[in-house]
Every structure is written in structure tokens, then in C-alpha cells.
Amino acid sequence: MRANRLGAVLAVALTATLASCGSSEPAESTEAAQSPAASAPQGPVKLTYWTWAPNMDKIVAVWNQAHPDIQVTVSKQAGGDDAAAKFLTAAKAGNPPDLVQAEYQHLPSFIAADAVADLKAETAAIKGEFTEGLWGLVTLGTDAVYAVPQDSGPMMLFYRKDLFDKYGIEVPKTWQEYGDAARTLRKKDPKAYLGTFSSKDPGAFTGLAQQAGAQWWSISGESWKVNVADEPTKKVADYWGALVKEGVIDDMPFFTPEWNKALNDGKLLTWPSAVWAPGVLSSNAPKAKGKWAVAPLPQWNAGESFSGFWGGSSVAVATKSPNKAAAAQFTTWLNTDPAALDLLVKEAAIYPAATKAQASLSQAPEYFANQPDFWQQAAAVSAGARGFTFGPNVGVTYNAFKDGFDKALQNKSSFSEAVQGMQDATVADMRKSGFTIAS
């Protein structure tokens, strides 16, 4: 599909969404927003970059020193859904930042609002710096490029090696083996669980669905195809639903005091999570430092090596930026230059999207000092991580996940029915917003 056709697919009024998005900063008048573009800029090009990554000002300072003609100012944001809503509000008002950190799942809503520019020409030379799975997250399956990948969250299996040894459990290589190990553990220690299913964390479920081969959204001509309730997703849902119903997997949500205590006390032996998990474990389970290890996610078919993504973000350029070329030059440097990538790892503490930066990581996270090949395993997992095209209303889909799976746990009903609820809610909202849905 031609790049300029995506605009026709996505160009709908997001009035209702934008009306609900507040901004603490007053918008400039239209005349004020347009006036810089009306005449040639005096002095260096000045860019504003909205980001929540820590210490980004230190990294930008290195750029500014080397590029006196393009000066970037960092504006620290809160991150998450609030940051996405604030950017959409600013874009509608006509005064967005030149650059914005965009989580992959939010990027389609930015495109739908015509808020981010197509960077295909400016990024043609760097496509090979990223895996196919990551590059697909910023192209939506088209030949347009709407951002440059910055960090990623390939999923792996984190497990208590000492307790696996104690109970004689082998690291599961398939999900069938994971279920068998869960049963074995419950027989040996009725107070412990191999894992838990969280109905509060749609991002984790999304990554597991990606691993299984799910494709929730796609673009067909001038229409969207929505297939949240596809067979891979139902397979994942039914698998976890059966384990919970059997009582061999817990159903406590992640990131709760109860979950923290179970991790810390050795009553929860695994966490299928993302590469950023060491930071969470070091804070929430400090007593278990040096006792955890990492392995690839169990596979649906023996011998495969697939994973999915939980988290990650990119850097996009606002459509209304008067300095698109300069902004593209900066984001290209930030996410592909070796010196910049080194700073992203050391100062911003992120797992870089660029494959060469992943390969250069050597010293394991302190919490995993007992596993010197931590980053080598992460790079191997990243190479096989599957992504998919996110839709323009992922927030609706994620809320439907929480509602549906909460009810499924309470009523002990089918997890695949909850997935169908996600599908129905997503389609209904897209149609209400004016999107054309392909049959």
C-alpha cells in the first residue's frame, strides 16, 4: 500500500478523544504557532523534545555541543496514557513539540490524528539497524515510517533457579512443559505457585499473544481489519484459563503488595516478563537477589524461538514541526549513533531497539550478576520477537481486557469469551469513531 494512502485509512475526527484530554499548558494561538514557519529561522534551529526517559537532558547536551546549528530542549513528561493524550491535545491546538517519545501502542492514534510525520525518506538508510519485528511497529505494515524505534521490551522467562533446583524442576522449553512443572510444584509445595495470571496487565497478555502469532489489527485498502479474537489469542487465553481453573497457577495481579511478597518469599517461582524485569525484581524482591535466572519464553511448538514485546517506545516527529529534517536528523542520531546508544543505556537505563547496541551490552544487571550471559540471551530473544500492528483505539481494547478477564476470574467463565469481548468492544468503538471495518 502506498504511504499516502494510510492517511485516508486513518483520517477520522478524534474530537471525542481529544475533548477528554486535558493539558496543563495553555496552547498558543494559531497565528503564534504558524508565525515561525512564515519566515526563515534566525540563528540555530530550535527543537523541543517531549520524553519521560530519565537523564535525557544529559544525552541531548552531548548532541547540542556537537551540533550548534540544531539545538534540542528536553521537556520532561509523565509518560503513559497521560503523555499520549497531552501530545494529541497539543497537536490539535497547533503547538506540538517537534519530537515526542511515543509508545508503540499509541503511535496509531497519533497517525490517525495526522499528528506525526512520515519519515520514510529521512530514515531509509537506518532500516537495517532494527529487527523486522520492531520496524513493523513504526510502519503499521505500510511503506511509510512514522517514528524511529528507541527501546523495546522482548519477553523472557524469569525464574527462581535455586527453587527449581530444590524441587527438581527443569526449565520449561514449551508451554506444555510449563503446565506440567506448575502441577509438579503444587504437589511438592502446596503454598507455592509456578506463576500467576494477571487480569490487570493487558501489555503482558499482548506480548504472549504476539509470541503465539496473533495479528490483532491490519490495514486492508482503505479499511481496517480487526481480529483480536484470532485463534492464536484464544489459544493463549484458554491455556492460562485452564491452568487457573485447575488451581496450579495463581490469579494475583502483577505489581501488587501480595505479588511482591510472593516473589520475595519464594512462593512465586516464575514471571514471564520483559527485558526490563531486573529493575522491578530488584525493587520488589530484594531478598532474592542472585537467585533468579533468565531463559527464553516456553514455546508453543518444540524447537521454535519466538517471543513477543511488552513495552517499548519510539521517537516521532510532529507533522506541524517547521523543522522536520532537523528533527529527523536528531532522532536518527539518538537511536543509531554508537555514542548516543551508549548514553541511552548508561544514562536512560533502557534496552535499546538498535540491534548493534543490544549486541554491545556485556555486564549483566546487578540483580542478575550470577548470570553473565544475561544480555546475550536477551539479544537472542529479541531477534525472534514478533510484533503486530496496533490499532488506533488500543486503550479501548486494553480496558476491555481488564473488564473481561476480571469477570472471567470472578465468574470462573471462559477466558476466550473475554477475548471475544475485547474484539466486540474494539470494533464497536472504531465504527463509532468513523473507521471503516473490513469484513
UniProtKB/TrEMBL annotation:
<protein>
    <submittedName>
        <fullName>Extracellular solute-binding protein</fullName>
    </submittedName>
</protein>
<feature type="signal peptide">
    <location>
        <begin position="1"/>
        <end position="21"/>
    </location>
</feature>
<dbReference type="Pfam" id="PF01547">
    <property type="entry name" value="SBP_bac_1"/>
</dbReference>
<dbReference type="InterPro" id="IPR006059">
    <property type="entry name" value="SBP"/>
</dbReference>
<keyword id="KW-0449">Lipoprotein</keyword>
<keyword id="KW-1003">Cell membrane</keyword>
<keyword id="KW-0472">Membrane</keyword>
<dbReference type="InterPro" id="IPR050490">
    <property type="entry name" value="Bact_solute-bd_prot1"/>
</dbReference>
<keyword id="KW-0564">Palmitate</keyword>
<keyword id="KW-0732">Signal</keyword>
